[in-house]
Amino acid sequence: MKKTPLLNAALSAAIARLGHGDIIVIGDAGMPVPPGTPCIDLALTAGVPDFATTLQVVLSEMQVQGHLLARETLEVAPSGLGAIEALYAAGELGERQLVSHDELKAACAKARVQIRTGECRPYSNIGLIAGVTF
């Protein structure tokens, strides 16, 4: 058995395949997934799993160098923003790049994988840029 909290085999494998600079997007239930971008759909029902829990579990296995965050997320302040800000303050999210929501959606086309959560609060999305552990 794995020792980390991440039990989803497809998601764990996707993180294991990341290279330096690759992007993973964690999105709410309404975030569009561009054609050709692999999607790991975790959504079960509204709110399950939520954005903040998904982010924390992904970070248990992923080394992050930086993150993409839509300015609209800061303006609307969905409940997951508290988790983002706490993780950012703790140095878990690396350097912040603020972009427009449309720019974040465009970045999804470059993502190695997009994770769909059951989160139903708009602008509960983040792009994680992979770092290295050495």
From TrEMBL:
GO annotations of cellular component type:
cytosol
- Keyword annotations of the record: Carbohydrate metabolism, Cytoplasm, Isomerase
Q: Which GO terms describe its biological process?
A: D-ribose catabolic process
Q: Which domain of life is it from?
A: Bacteria
Q: In which pathway does it act?
A: Carbohydrate metabolism; D-ribose degradation; D-ribose 5-phosphate from beta-D-ribopyranose: step 1/2
What is the organism lineage in this UniProt record? Bacteria, Pseudomonadati, Pseudomonadota, Gammaproteobacteria, Pseudomonadales
Which InterPro entries has this protein been placed in? D-ribose_pyranase, RbsD-like_sf, RbsD_FucU
Q: Which family does it belong to?
A: Belongs to the RbsD / FucU family. RbsD subfamily.
Catalytic center at which residues? 20 (proton donor)
- What is the annotated localization of this protein? Cytoplasm
**Catalyzed reactions per annotation:** beta-D-ribopyranose = beta-D-ribofuranose
Give the function comment from the record.
Catalyzes the interconversion of beta-pyran and beta-furan forms of D-ribose.
Instruction: Indicate yes or no for the key word Transport.
Output: no
The EC number(s) attached to this protein equal: 5.4.99.62
Q: What is its main location?
A: cytoplasm
Positions contributing to substrate binding: 28, 101, 123-125
Species of origin reads: Stutzerimonas stutzeri (Pseudomonas stutzeri)
How it assembles, according to the record, is: Homodecamer.
**What SUPFAM superfamilies does UniProt report for this protein, alphabetically?**
RbsD-like
Keyword Cytoplasm set for record: yes
Q: What is this protein called?
A: D-ribose pyranase
User: Which GO molecular function terms does the record list?
Assistant: D-ribose pyranase activity; intramolecular lyase activity; monosaccharide binding
